[in-house]
Amino acid sequence: MTPEKRACQEIDLKLMGVSWGVQDRTAVTLAAGRGITVREVSLMRGRGETDYHFFADGKAIGWVEAKPEEHTLLGVEEQSSKHLSGVSSGPRR
After folding, report:
1. Which pairs with CB-CB distance under 8 Å and at least 24 residues apart come from 10-15?
2. What's the predicted TM-score (pTM) here?
3. 47-62 pLDDT per residue, tens
């Protein structure tokens, strides 16, 4: 298992532990709860995908990129900027 996959498993468990629903992008039901996190959401205009996209009451409120513990933040700001320009109000499949 890759370090990023291991980080995602840990993030899933922590999110569920604080009552966030965690869903795969192929089976999204935003009405399933007040706080829903969708894995690997594709962004508009070829801007890649986010590891976790957060929705509160059906509205997109943010995203998180999963990185292994030893990963530094160098370069992450460029990735985040790219995502910001491609964020939509709902998940794309």
Report:
1. 11/51, 11/52, 11/64, 11/66, 12/39, 15/52
2. 0.71
3. 677 889 999 999 989 8
